[in-house]
Amino acid sequence: MLMNDFLNRVEARNPDQPEFMQAVHEVVESVWPVYESTPEFYQSKLLDLMVEPERQISFRVSWMDDNGKIQVNRAYRIQYNSALGPYKGGMRFHPTVNQSILKFLGFEQTFKNSLTMLAMGGGKGGADFDPKGKSDHEVRRFCKNMMMELYRHIGPDVDVPAGDIGVGQREIGYMFGAYGKIKNDYTGVLTGRSLGLGGSPLRSQATGFGVVYFVEEMLKNVGDSLEGKRVAVSGSGNVAQYAMKKLEELGGLAITASDSSGYVYDPEGIKGEKLDYLLDLKQKQRGRISEYAKKYKTQYFENKKPWDVACDIALPCASQNELYAEDAKELVKNGVKYVAEGANMPTTPDAMAIFKESGVLFAPGKASNAGGVATSGFEMSQTSQRLNWEPEEVDRRLKGVMQSIHAQCAEHGAEKKQIDYVKGANVAGFIRVANAMISRGLE
Ligand code: NDP
Ligand code: 2IT
After folding, report:
1. How many CA atoms lie within 13 Å of 433's alpha carbon, on the beta-carbon side?
2. For residue range 160-217, what is the model confidence (pLDDT) as tens digits?
3. Residue 363's beta-bridge partner residues?
4. Candidates 105, 171, 234, 319: which one to mutate for ligand 1, based on the most atoms within 8 Å of Cβ?
5. Whose CA is nearest to atom 28 of ligand 1?
6. For residues 116 and 373, is the Cβ–Cβ distance under 8 A?
7. What is the distance in A from the centroid of ligand 2 to the CA of 90?
8. What mean pLDDT is predicted for residues 316-345?
């Protein structure tokens, strides 16, 4: 069968799911030669199995707002693939959440988790609930009522949710409290918990730190280093914040940060006291990035993305499809040499093609942002041991995972001129899941 016939068939079965199809295209195009030439894989119809989530749960959540009015949201959990371990992946609270977005995220998560070499299957969930502008009480009531249904489907050896867009330690704490109350137990059913609730040191930092460790490996591999590199970062949430922290520590200079309203450009660098202010602004005050520009008298570009600045490295850390072909052209024109995705699928396929043609080294999210879920895996181990590791131990292991993922990309994505990280990550991630599915008798 031709690859295009396969993709057309998947498309016909998943109409109106553009994000899911985008993710499927990327993986299938990378792995098809391996798939087709491995009879065990091909005859088992593994790709047909992999494009179907094992289970999809969708449910209603009602809750009462501060004005005493009833609100209704739609929530989901996609239990995508359990070949390698319990379903594992975050929960996203954002008004755009729908089945296509969560299926793409669950599909990506399956291969990402495989790359970590830890025992985690792939899952993702969320709700079209918008925590922005809601009071703590409203967020707590929503989390509690959502868990009234979600608890039936998850468990420390079944499915272990964590955070993602709109879900940080506050939301995880509320969900964890509700789960414990319903089940009358205290287990590792959610990761990303605060230290006080038995979470892992460095879980909050891990995705952003991991992205920068991965970039360090990409640079090292071509005889370059982070020292003095100018870095355009998008987003100003969990991933972006700690990517900027690690850049500062390792000698890079973050010069932009953004949110859904616009971006700030600080040519002197978002670092030191200014970066601490940004963390406080976003984590405690839940404010807008424009306030950074006001406070430090830097430029602010409303409704713009930070892809028109001169930089050596770009780290898209906000959301899917935030870096288009025209942005890629602009970045290339302005000197970008390396791009690593902190977000999941922020780069469109056309933009990726431009980076490839231009010799820009490009790391896909399932490789470069895997440090977060890897540290969630470490949190699961610590919970089972009823022990907390020292932060240094978590950091050492995190770095080890990012180095191992880089090595897997190099092994499976080696090309004449440079490493094709997209191919390398997809093929390496796919092979491990494929072998596990076969060993489990395709169940
Ligand atoms: P946060 O909610 O902490 O931050 C998200 C940031 O992205 C905010 O600055 C937000 O701006 C911005 N943003 C969100 N949606 C859009 C949009 N449609 N257009 C423009 N800006 C947007 O989320 P995280 O930092 O945790 O997640 C960011 C990305 O990283 C996501 O793609 C997520 O899937 C991925 N990721 C997260 C991991 C984690 O451990 N948290 C692990 C691996 C990947 P605003 O506040 O205005 O909405
Ligand atoms: O996309 C991701 O890898 C995450 N949101 C983190 C998932 C997790 O289980 O820690």
Report:
1. 31
2. 999 999 999 999 999 999 999 999 999 999 999 999 999 999 999 999 999 999 999 9
3. 340
4. 319
5. 318
6. yes
7. 5
8. 98
Among the options 112, 124, 337, 366, which is catalytic? 124
Distance 137 CA to ligand 1 centre (A): 23
Residue 4's contacts (CB-CB under 8 Å, 6 or more residues apart) are none
Q: Residue 200 C-alpha to ligand 2 middle, in angstroms?
A: 14
> For ligand 2, which residues put their CB under 6 angstroms from it?
88-90, 109, 112, 162, 164, 191, 344, 372-373, 376
Residue 333 is among the residues annotated as catalytic for this protein: no
**Mean pLDDT across 330-343:** 98
Query: Half-sphere exposure of 96 toward its Cβ, with a 13 Å CA cutoff?
Result: 10
Query: 443 falls in which pLDDT band (50, 70, 90)?
Result: confident
How much is the average pLDDT of 85-98? 98
Averaged pLDDT of the chain: 98
Q: Residue 323 has what DSSP assignment?
A: B
Would you say the CB of residue 342 lies under 6 angstroms from ligand 1? yes
pLDDT at 89 over 80: yes
Alpha carbon dihedral 24, 19, 97, 166, in 10-degree steps, equals: 80
Domains, the chain:
52-188 (3.40.50.10860), 204-363 (3.40.50.720)
**Whole-structure pTM value:** 0.98
Pocket test of ligand 1: the residue of 171, 191, 260 to mutate, having most ligand atoms within 8 Å of its CB, is 260
